[in-house]
Amino acid sequence: MRHGLLVLLFLALAASDPSEPAISYFSNLREVHVAQPDRQNFFIVDEELWNHSRPDLGDLRLYDGLTPVQFSISEQRAGISSEEVAARILNLGSSSGHTEFDLDVEALPTYDRIRLQLDAKDFVVTAFVSGSNALDHAGSIELAPSTIYDFTSQQLGSNSVLKLPPSSFRYLHIKLSGGIRPQQVKGAAIYNLREQQASWTKAGTCAMPQQKQRTTMIVCDVPVKIPLDRILFQVVPAQVNFRRTVSVENAKGVQEVSGEITRVRVNRAGTLVTAEELTINVSGTSGHFTLSIDNGDNPPLAIVGAQPLSLERRVYFDPQRKTLLSLYYGDEKLSAPVYDYARFFHLEASPAEAQLGAGTHNPQYTGRPDDRPWSDRHMGMLWAVMLLAVISLTVLAIRGLRSEAKP
User: What pTM was estimated for this model as a whole?
Assistant: First the structure.
């Protein structure tokens, strides 16, 4: 009897095996129309996929008939790679009221940016740059000039980076227009900036702005499952030289994030300075929220609208000369795939964009079997077994006491 009880208890505590993918377990299906069967393809994750998949997209699966097709999910973030090194300043001085100096840039083979460290405020300066391989400037070549500025008193930001075409000169000669003294030049660094622009998709909508005293209010709605990453503001082009603080409040009125939008267009002594930043990052916010733009004592901004944006997610795959694949999704218990294709993913030069068909219900869908542990699925039986065990132990104890009492 004891052995029987142990067997029942073992079965009661046994757990099911980990979840595995099966076509009948996916609730939704979409056709994937391959653009070019002989090269790498991709499709963009849209609202349909976000609404019916797991938030981490771990339940997406591609099939060629019954054969799985490996893929890699990539976020189209802005990519910036640079190697910044200090440049040695030589021959720093003044000539005809202009600060001039040389930079020894031997430490970096190629570069396209110079960052100056200046101990100065409220200025607009044009930097003229020429490059040569000799310190005496023999055979020097003029490079593109850059405008650097600081608008601290106007709270409009600053910029001290000089942009150059890709260059490899050993020495750079820099001449600044009036406004910076030699003793205000504290340092310089060079780097090679390789920049990849981010890609965005629209996510939800925002209502038209409403004015409330000194604050402009904009109400927005984004589907809960779509990850929101950024808000883009559309301000009429004619409105310039502003800087506003923007706060994002959730449905309960709690501020979740804040940022600034700005546009600068200033002409100082014939030098035009332009800069613009009309987006704020709002990672993690979704659902119903309100944007509040603090205008201070300034007139309200002429905002045409605001657009929530989600960072574009692409699914890359090799169609292996197939023209039609099936995309299945909608299985909450399925673990994320682990593919060699994703581990060793290589983005080809010109991948083709595949097209997704409309989302439909999977006709083969049956749902997963109940994979809860045996104990969770048979609580009644488990309690009966435990009760039987207690009764059996009680009977055995009584018999033992009687046996001891007879002698």
Answer: 0.62
